[in-house]
Specification:
The chain is built from 19 helices and no strands. The protein has 415 residues and is mostly helical. It comes from Arundinibacter roseus.
Length: 415
């Protein structure tokens, strides 16, 4: 349980640091007023990503763990020219391993995987500035960026967990910014297609509401289909139907989600693990996301995509049986910058608690042996089980709360 204790302690310390930042908001905002955003974001990356990286992996000598081992297996083999899905298993899209492999050409070490994640996180924050710059001041953006840098859901999941989920946000924002600059829907569609091929299968979920809102549907579709067909034409002769490997992840049972919380209350009679729940989860998350996008179809893109993104992927986190709370890293940026009202102490307090729970629970649950509760008696079988179940309930409840703030029930839909 050492890693759980370390993550818990770090999370509390980071939340206390965020509390100081909130307390000194007026002072910090004034100090940030005349600063260049790009320079300050780079400084933030050095202080809150590179320095922790050096402390953890160089000074303390810790070896990367968890998902990094899987990323290293994929990236190292891809860097040697092996074929994804045929020569090594991958739950990710076909370009993912090769992208990591490029970075490993610079430094052939598992720690390079972590460093790569910090760079991509920094790029996501920089792209977010260009998305929001017409709607908020530089000082306001930098203040929220400072909070983002220190929250456990970003710092720990990026530097310790080496999560890649923020890449999806980066690629959607980049697609829009390039379209805005070039005026070409083809560029927009091409970057989105590359995003799907570079990240993971769930990236396709955001394409549904974006397609519904797209005015140039034919050109949008033609480009995406053409890129997909070309990729498939290359992959199929090499790997056959093994390119479907990423879809196997949907059958992996994880926690917390609605099913893991409800299953023991119904004495294991709701069919947890069946494919029906995968499809039901997709319908609910994509449906809510699409409805949110449709309601905001006349709003600025930055507001529409932010609220749609949080609604869709936060919902997915609790209705998809293969999802787990690390996915907070997927939607934390738009949640923090757009959805949360920082004048509302309840929202802020719950966000801080949510960060701690989402960071600590996956490690705690995994070290308990990934328990699946079948009856109420299983929940109270031990103190550890009770704590695990209570954390699951809290994460699910808080996720629903933030979906409510972001999506179809939100009354305040302005940045």
């Amino acid at each position: 349980m050492n890693l759980v204790l370390i993550k818990s302690l770090l999370s509390v310390l980071l939340v206390l640091t965020a509390g100081v930042i909130l307390w000194k908001k007026e002072y910090l905002t004034q100090r940030l007023k005349d600063q260049r955003v790009t320079r300050m974001l780079a400084l933030g990356w050095l202080l809150f990503r590179v320095v922790p990286f050096l402390l953890v992996y160089v000074a303390a000598g810790f070896a990367p763990t968890s998902d990094v081992n899987g990323f290293w297996d994929e990236g190292s083999k891809a860097s040697m020219g092996q074929v994804v899905y045929r020569d090594f298993w991958s739950p990710y899209s076909p370009f993912f391993a090769y992208f990591l492999g490029i970075w490993l050409k610079i430094w052939y070490d598992p720690r390079m995987i972590v460093l790569t994640m910090t760079v991509m996180d920094a790029l996501a924050l920089w792209a977010t500035w260009h998305l929001y710059r017409s709607r908020m001041s530089a000082a306001d953006f930098l203040y929220k960026a400072l909070l983002y840098y220190v929250l456990p859901g970003s710092l720990i999941l990026c530097v310790v967990g080496a999560q890649e989920d923020v890449w999806m946000w980066l690629l959607v924002v980049a697609a829009y910014l390039f379209r805005q600059r070039t005026g070409r829907v083809e560029v927009y569609a091409a970057i989105l297609a590359i995003g799907l091929l570079l990240t993971k299968a769930i990236f396709i979920l955001i394409l549904v509401p974006l397609f519904f809102l797209e005015k140039e549907k034919i050109r949008f579709t033609v480009i995406m289909v053409a890129i997909g067909a070309l990729t498939l034409a290359i992959l199929y002769p090499l790997v056959g139907m093994e390119f479907m490997q990423p879809l196997d992840e949907a059958d992996t049972l994880r926690a917390p989600n609605l099913l893991s919380v409800l299953n023991p209350l119904f004495f294991n009679s709701i069919g947890v693990g069946q494919k029906f729940w995968n499809w039901a989860g997709l319908v609910v998350s994509v449906g809510l996301g699409s409805w949110t996008a449709w309601r905001l179809r006349t709003a600025d893109f930055s507001e529409m995509i932010s609220r749609t993104w949080v609604t869709l992927y936060a919902t997915m986190m609790v209705v998809q049986q293969s999802a787990y709370s690390n996915y907070i890293f997927l939607f934390l940026i738009p949640l923090l910058f757009v959805v949360i009202d920082w004048r509302n102490r309840t929202q802020v307090g719950l966000l801080l608690v949510f960060n701690i729970l989402c960071v600590v629970h996956p490690s705690y649950w995994w070290r308990l042996g990934m328990p699946k509760y079948l009856t109420p008696a299983d929940i109270v079988a031990s103190g550890a089980a009770i704590l695990d179940y209570l954390m699951q309930v809290a994460i699910v409840a808080l996720t629903i709360y933030f979906v409510r703030l972001a999506g179809i029930f939100s009354k305040n839909q302005h940045i």
